[in-house]
Amino acid sequence: MTVSEAISKLATRLSAAGLVFGHGFDSAWDEAVALVLHVADLPDDRKSLHMRLTAAQVREIDALASRRIDERVPLPYLTGVAVFAGHRFLIEPGVVIPRSPIGQLVKRHFSPWLQRPPGRAIDVCCGSGCIGIAMALEFPRLHVDLVDVDPLAVAVAERNVDMHNLRDRVRVIRSDLFDGIDAQRWDLIVSNPPYVDHTDLGSLPPEYGHEPALGLDGGGLGVSVISRLLDGLPARLLPGGLFVCEVGASAPALMRHYPNLPFIWLDLPEGGEGVFVLTGDSLQPPSAAQHSTESSSEP
Ligand SMILES: C[S@@+](CC[C@H](N)C(=O)[O-])C[C@H]1O[C@@H](n2cnc3c(N)ncnc32)[C@H](O)[C@@H]1O
Q1: Domain chopping of the chain, boundaries
Q2: Alpha-carbon distance 66 to 83, whole Å?
């Protein structure tokens, strides 16, 4: 069987299986291409389509497809890799799969929101490290801190830093948000924290059940982690700096919680929702004093 034939056959099988494509792929076809090329260890170009697969490779494709369909395992957990903002990242079960629309903003250098080339940035709730590492690759002089509370995420982020040869500019820190980091400030703070509320958490498609709850669960209203992050922000963001954050469908809850914060909600031409920026200059006085008392019971 050729690669091309295997992709067509697999795409038909995947599309008939009622899967959800929310982990870095848009369609059965995209997943079929990625899975077959992964097993065949071939690059994503036209020449690969005519190559012949061995019988062992055909069997492996079949076995991985069965796990994707029967167990609803997201494809990056089967292949061990994900592509984010045009770069490859190592992934393993237990670490959230990269897919944040913040990747679109990284590729555009956060234009027009970033006022100056950043010197120091931090990716809080970094997971695999995908956002912070993509930033380090886009801005060749940028120093980046990657922070996560989960030791497995920290270990995977370390491996990704090594894979991209960024040891000299990127460090990985295990910390509960800013709590374990001494008094420092950054020009650019990005975060894709856990923000799924408990209503949505109970109704996610089975694929999301393979991801760690720590990476998704944002508390009853979805804003527990982001509230703590926002309250610490004025002490951590430099004047003239930028905070970029994804809260997805929890955006309305966040606006109710902080009615006076000047969130700027972004259009995301390549898809996604609930990404905002806050400028360092707009964060005075400290946001902790600004949030609504009536809805502050959850965090
Ligand atoms: C939605 S995932 C995002 C991962 C990565 N930034 C991405 O976009 O793929 C959220 C991450 O936040 C981490 N996390 C949850 N609570 C945290 C906390 N209190 N402090 C630091 N990290 C936390 C989880 O371990 C998880 O890796």
Answers
A1: 3-79, 94-289
A2: 22
